[in-house]
Design a protein that fits this description.
The chain is mainly alpha-helical. The protein folds into four domains: 60 residues; 44 residues, no CATH class; 96 residues, no CATH class; 118 residues, no CATH class. Helices cover 47% and strands 4% of the residues. The protein is built from 18 helices and five strands. The termini are far apart.
Amino acid sequence: MTSPRAGTRAAAGPYRPVPAGREGKMLSRQEAAQARRWRDAGWPVSSIARHLRRSPTTIRAYLKGNRQPGKRAPRPDTFLPFADYSHRRCTDDPHLDTRTLFAEVTALGYPGSYQTFCGALQRHQVRRHACRQCRAPRPASPAAPAQSRQAGPLPIPAALIAGEVLASYLGRLAAANHVTVDDLLTILPPWFNTKIRNHDDRSQHHMLAPALPGAILTLAALTGKAPAVLTRALPAFGARYLPDPVRATTACRKCLTIRGICQPVPVHRPACHLICSRHGQWLSGADLPQLDLTACPEIITAHQRSHKLLRHCTPQQLMIAHLAAERTFREPSRQPAGQPRTRPPQRWRHRLRQLKTTNPHLGDSLQDELIHAAIYPDALGQAAAMITAQQR
């Protein structure tokens, strides 16, 4: 009398080893039915797994009913904890490169590959916001080469704003001296024309790197500023003091008024730099009005505490913890697993009403920024507790 194992060996075909990569594959309906028949015949799970060329764990899951034939097992979304962070980074920086964002989330603990990361960005609809300045008309190429004109110092200098976009600084410099930007580009080296046309101050292309020292010296001679001062103030010259990640915003309007500047100045700021503590201004995103925080001094105090918190964590860690904490206030039902379902305090709603009263000219056009500012103190305190718990 032949054993069940030997009797069905001929029907199942000769035994073949399990190919690499097929251990966790799903079973078809016919294979699942065959596995149940062999189990009813008394076959052990290990024998069924060898004949179907699957792992015993997979066979056991189908026999117990944990997996359905013809359907793949649901995989956990490893990108979900980093979705809010990626959305915020793409909103803050329109010129953020995908490779740079991938390096940031990898440092935060994302385990996937770059191809998996790109697929997750599409699945979660994470897209870079269009930069309005990139759609503006590009300046024409200078009519004469830079070597044919001698760059002399201009009579009226323009005040430097830390993190200012190069196109904005040249525009203010030209307006102060009653000339056009095209006139300045005729005097300046072609490096400036290329930079303005690309409108991406943060990237340093390897083809432009050799001309960078000459460009700094020419602008220094034109403005009367020291090259080190220009390098430190303008990110287009590679301001190393400005760490990643950064956000595109507008300089504090009160700081600009003190320097005699009336128009908005687009700048790059560290991503965690949300407030001008000196004048109590919430620095909204680029091309958005700023919020007056004088009625809510606790928001300014919380921002000052964030600088101390950055001594114990990276800006990326603070951002992802702050976004997770902010989500618990916006959506109490989405609190992290393992925590009691308690309703967060509603102090931020009173703060929101104060901000709307202090900024009546905004209306509901900046509702998201108003909520972001109102939740900021409570969310930052909860983020600090999360970071402290992770470091223990």
